[in-house]
Amino acid sequence: MKAIGSATLLPMSPRRLFATTNSRCRPSDATWPSQSAWKRLNDAVGGNLIPVNFPLSILQTDPDSTDAKNLAENLRNPYYIGDQPGLTQTLGWVDAWTTHPSVYAVAARNAEDIAAGVNFARENDLRLVIKGGGHSYQGTSNAPDSLLIWTRHMHDIVMHDAFVPRGCGRTVQPQPAVTLGAGTIGMQAYDAVTTKAGKYVQGGGCTTVCLGGLVQSGGFGSFSKHYGTAAGGLLEAEVVTADGMIRTANVCTNPDLFWALKGGGGGSFGVVSKMTLRVHDLPEFFGAADLTIKASSDDTYRRLIREFVSFYSEQLFNNHWGEQAHLNPDNSLGIAMVSYGLDTEQAKEVWKPFLDWVKRSSREYSIEGHLTIGSIPARHFWDVQWWKEHWPEIAFPNPDGNSLKSLFNYSLAHLVPQPIFEFDRRPGAGPTDAWWAGDASQVGWFIRGFESLWLPSSLLTPDSQEQLANALFRGSRHKEIELHFNKGLAGAPREAIDAASDTAMNPAVLNAFALAISADGGGGYPGVSGHEPDVAAARKSREEIRRCMNELRGIVPNGGAYVSESNFFEEDWQQAYWGSSYPRLASVKRKYDPTGLLIVHNGVGSEDWSADGFTRLKRK
Ligand SMILES: Cc1cc2nc3c(=O)[nH]c(=O)nc-3n(C[C@H](O)[C@H](O)[C@H](O)COP(=O)(O)OP(=O)(O)OC[C@H]3O[C@@H](n4cnc5c(N)ncnc54)[C@H](O)[C@@H]3O)c2cc1C
After folding, report:
1. pLDDT of 615 strictly over 60
2. Ligand 1, atom 21: nearest CA belongs to which residue?
3. Are the CB atoms for 496 and 233 separated by under 8 Å?
4. I need a labelling partner for 613 at 20 to 30 A (CA). Which of 111, 160, 163, 594 fits?
5. Helices 465-476 and 535-555, axial angle in degrees (round to 10)
6. Cβ-Cβ contacts under 8 Å for 358 (sequence gap 6 or more)
7. What is the pLDDT of residues 309-322, one digit of tens each?
8. How far apart are CA 385 and CA 114, in angstroms?
């Protein structure tokens, strides 16, 4: 480790349990740790302390080089980005933040490495950040002049037939579960639990989101309308708190910390090293409904939205249907939904009344492009090899048309010769290193604006549907609105709602039928001259998003927003993200991190710190 030098091993300095100063030090400060101190940390973590470089700098220093071209290519690959301690999946957000590397990273292998990093940061008054998958839209897993705890390499997975949380004895029934290293990403979890073991664990919809960050956000996957939130399935966590202690948190041991980790927001209560999550049975089928309907005028579009709202509330508002509908300014309605537990014929039957209505008005409405309604065996939903064998047209961007017959056994209504997976094509990439093509536009993007709002199920009552449809229409005049039905739990089974009600999330999630999101992002590399994103266009887009969401806020003034998918500039974020849970979260924070070692933007306790997380603010 060149940057750290070769000082001889010295004893660690006496432990300071809590930082005593009100500011964090930077490399330019006299109090910044010496090379020999860093060397001691490196030894303590088994040589896994790494100086962090900033891969984007080559775009500045040698823009025409092959390396610069390779980098630009790799910035479309979330596995490449995830492998870089100095990068994040979002590169920045206009007027909010831009990605910055830490000075050093502990590439942790276990809880002891994490504890060494936490102790070092506390004893030396360093700004500490934690990164798993690096998917934070808010930029909470990077900070300049900081020490990074990086969990990328912690992805061991162990299945249990009958798990009992530590210290619970006979008070808790044994149940099937899986223990995951905190750096496990969705695809790794789905491959082990669904493809290989025929079971289900709640990860994210995006296959490269890391479960460490996901669980602490609350966490929704495509099938959350049936299985509930990721946080609702947490049975136990191993977590290093700000005092450097490795603790177990579950319903019997440190239950207050356990509750806070379930949706209280990542990077605020401790560094999670592993998690044990409930494992569920699979249904026979998972499926999809994918189509776009274009209306001929504003008026007919308004009627289409009204009809869809009514159809949704009668036929889709249940645990079988999740993911999204998109209401677009060009008067089109995009459906990109998934189904749980329905075979192809059952799924087609569900959609028939709505599609018949569309067909009856063929002068006003047309179906654009493909129409896909169908199911596949649930166990193969994330089975990349199965997709390749049964449906290369989908697994690969270049259709060859050879295997339509074998696919026909699982018949979708129409065949879709377009890729749904993209693959990590770097040498040495694993066979399952894939991501949904639908998530590709967010890889290495720069955010222009992003807002969310939970929509309560009361809007689906017959008396309110008109009001909802009108607000959606008005909002869609400004910007696209996405309705994420799997990110509101109304309509989910009782068990899923009960589990989520025992988490720190804003209770608004329990009664919401959907999370409405309006967001936009694009290309460009902030901070790299010649490659800067178009700031004026980004600000314009942010304003359109604000106007769009204001139409929805007009009918839902205090709906709340999902901490992980929301506005960086969220006003009254404590209330929006956590509602009535906030006072309890604040007290857990004071207990486990009294001096604010773990501070993230708009995280619990961050109101006491400057925006950069370096200075404690004086209380007025
Ligand atoms: C393309 C994309 C798709 C997404 N899809 C979904 C979705 O389908 N459902 C959904 O619910 N969310 C989704 N999200 C949001 C995502 O779940 C959250 O941003 C989540 O927190 C990401 O976790 P991460 O570890 O990958 O990210 P990171 O940026 O590494 O971490 C996020 C936060 O958690 C903290 N953190 C990470 N690991 C730990 C740890 N071990 N201990 C303590 N704190 C930790 C970080 O400090 C940071 O504050 C998506 C985000 C993106 C970019």
Report:
1. yes
2. 213
3. no
4. 111
5. 170
6. 293, 304, 365, 367
7. 999 999 999 999 99
8. 35
